[in-house]
């Protein structure tokens, strides 16, 4: 605050006034709040007012800002003052302090004028004061003026700034209000709203800003407390670090009914700082992006869905740009092109993997698709790993959001299909060529038995077209005598899908019926579907005719030879006799047929005329040598020699010779037979054999032929196909290479044996196919013998018998199953025994050994009645009779006897055993030990009986309680009003007796009214109440019960269980002790006992006879009792169960020595501090 | 000066027990009223506002425990003593306890001397006496 002092003597009051005003002014100007809300004209007015009063001036003119004088204000001193001030300012300069005297019109005296510029700028205005006092301004007044000017400048600046700030603030608020973002500002740690814009109100579903301003965040938007927002804002407020959240989910109660809606926002929480730097509040800037997020989620969802489809499709899915760049490819596609990862191909040019020859096509195709067409294309690719594949693609254009079109393709690897198509075509081609070229006549029939194909050989043979032959057309050419038979064979075999072979006559195109042999086999697709039949026919007419002729010729020859001996003349052989000079002496008429010469043409001629040139010299030399030496140069019996026919051709002859001697001269006779036909037949046979081989090659069976020594010289085609071998590999003994090495030695052994003996060979052994698989083949080899009976050739067939071997395997597994059954019987828990119809045991399993105590060795061969008690021996007869009738006895409950004599309850099932014919030959006994079950049933009945008695007792006791209560009350009342002493005494006695009855009923009920929850209880109290229950029983038997409670800690336990525990133990002791005996019961604390640190021990010692060792080991078993009829055998078992539940222990010591005998039972139970712990422990063990 | 009147309501379906008990209580200076079933017992209570209710547990219709729960709701200051001779009582008490209602139970028969001691202990607790002064209409 400015202190103004002046040496000029003034009235004290004036000075005081001046000071006060000055202070006002300074205060006015320097207190920022002072001018808040004021306009500049008001400021000027205010300053003018102060100066007018302070200086007692005639006029004051305050102008704020010379440029716009409207901002200034004139005070009402004198009308001409303003104009004078302007003139003076113009004269002196607007930025100068002016002191001058002016004369104003209509003003009595000259006027002193002082003008002070405001601030440093000429623009800021001035303060002008006019006063009639000649001494104006005094020093103090000058000072005050300058202060006023300065303060006004400051004030003006402040007001301007404030106005500007107001404006700015207003402008910002306008902006915020219109901003599309939700904006709000909160102050303080509670986040109290000071501002929210309309968008904020709108997105939160509220109605106006007043729902926020002045309230805290929690109050205004309670629903966002579910999200992280308040924590985040707290954190921003605390740390001063802004928080930027993207797409955060908020639930806002902004639905039409105020129900929550999910919304997403991009947030900025910006800390707002005070001037001094502390955090003042938090600015919220939120932009709702719900629609964007939802739209994106939807897109993502559908995208991931599509992606999943694309990824899981078994075909290549790819996207290709128009320039061939691969944009996407699924994993199947990557595998097809041999890429280990997408990066190896995606983004690269797809053309690179297209096979060069298809690249151009693919490029054009791609461009077409990218141009908007759909289409399919087949092409080859060469993958990154160099594998060529044939692909089939189906493509469609796909428009990208950016307007470009890409090629979407689903591509399938059709390499395999192509390959098989190719293979099929090739094999078909081959087949066609072969069949067309083959002399074999081939036909094929569909599954309708109608023929649809005949090869050229067939068509040439019949001289008809395929059309004529198709269907049943071929039948027209079958010889009518053969037709029915053939049709029968064909139809029957066809229906049975069996190969067939038939011979019939087929009309040749020349009109002649020729014999053909027709082999038909069923045809299957590779996957086993029946397709029809294929057949091959051979023209066997010639050989058939030849064979027929030969047969006739041979027959005739035999006959003629027979005849010759009697009538040479009638012989068909030519007979010629010669002398030593070879001159023909005799010729029979057959020479005309054989040689073409009539006998008369031959007689007197040389025999050599009937020989070809080459033979003549040999004959002459041979004859001469024979005549001279007697040595024959050739075999005289049936020698084949060439002869010369009259027409000049050589003829094969079979010649035999004979001689006779007359007068020292040798005469020879030759018998010559023309064997042309025979030769021809032989040739035909050879031909036929070749044809047979052709046929054999088309057979599905493996066929081969071997020399007598086993050297295989021929296999059919099927052999090579099946084994995948070549003739070179197989020749001779090469076949061993397709045998299983394991089986081979035996095959060789057998085969060599057959070769040695000439016996047929039959064996099944595996042969390896071309696929590497061994399949079993039934192999039959038969010898072909010559006339002498020697083996001339082996003829072998191998037939695939895989399916039959399967059957055998099944049989074997059935055998295995029966072995398994035997094992089950052996391991069964039930005694399983078989016996014959006399009751003699034939089998005895392990369980039977266990059950009866007899070993199998002891029992087999002995009667089963050994296991039956004497009084039940008749049973077995009944059983055997029942079984003999074929009936079964089920679950027959009876008693059997062990080897030890012990009797057991058993349940027996007996079933008959039958032989294959169904005749009953014995019985199977299944015996189960049900002793335990019987005992359990017995015990259950006892327990139930006891329980029923107990329930009855309880009910009765309850019924007694109410009358007791009434009687007790009545006696009490009577006693009070009784006057006579003796009556009072009677009543007292009655009360005492009543007391006894009440005690009794309460004790009886003790066992029944307990809860099942553990409570704090002492073992001592249980011991006491138990003793009181048993005291009369003990008293009756003269037994003393001593009780000692040393320590008696509380434990948590179910009282009824403790009572049962103590009761059972005490009851056992009382039963054990004889009259006059003692029982000591003690309760004390127990030290550390394994599971727990503190425990309470109950010891019950009796002076009974003690428990023998063999019994002691079994006392805790259920149903074990030594008390025969009174005990259930469950007492100690239940005790042990209870003790175990409390994690305690129970032990028994016993001595049986006479005089020192006795038993001590010790039970230790844990002292658990917490009830809950024990409750939990009990729950766990329940 | 107001007189301290200790009022007791006895509820028992066994008429003889209820009547004799009331007699005994009256002869010992209490004002005793009798009811033979739960609902009429409750009615009597709302009429005379007793300091103590002695109630049998096993009764046809409304059980003593139901009566006690209702009493505690309507007259929180009223003491309740249940007594019973039935085994089923233990289970009923346990159920009530599991629902948060804990009551004192005496087993029938109880000797009148013991009962009177119990009644005295319950009813003459100092604060109850004070309350009885204030609330007494006499």
Q: Estimate what percentage of residues of chain B fall within beta strands.
A: 15-25%
- DSSP helical segment count of chain B: 6
Largest sheet of chain B: 5 strands, parallel
- Helical content of chain A, roughly? 40-55%
Main β-sheet, spatial strand arrangement of chain B: 2-1-3-4-5
Q: Using the CA coordinates, give the radius of gyration of chain A.
A: 68 Å
> What is the overall silhouette of chain A?
flat
Secondary-structure element sequence of chain B? EHEHEHEHEHH
Query: Uncertain segments of chain B of ≥5 residues (pLDDT<50)?
Result: 127-138
Provide a descriptive summary of the structure in words.
The complex is a heterodimer of chains A (1182) and B (138). With 1182 residues, chain A is an alpha+beta fold. Helices cover 41% and strands 27% of the residues of chain A. In chain A, the strands form nine sheets. In chain A, strands 2-1-5-4-3 form a five-stranded antiparallel β-sheet, sandwiched between helices. In chain A, strands 7-6-10-9-8 form a five-stranded antiparallel β-sheet. A five-stranded antiparallel β-sheet of chain A has the order 12-11-15-14-13, sandwiched between helices. In chain A, a hairpin with a 6-residue loop joins strand 41 and strand 42. Chain A starts with 11 loop residues before the first helix and ends with a helix. The model of chain A is unreliable at 6-10 and 563-570 (pLDDT under 50). With 138 residues, chain B is an alpha/beta fold. A five-stranded parallel β-sheet of chain B has the order 2-1-3-4-5, with helices on both faces. In chain B, helix 3 (64-74) links the parallel strand 3 (52-56) and strand 4. The interface between A and B is medium-sized, with 25 and 22 residues.
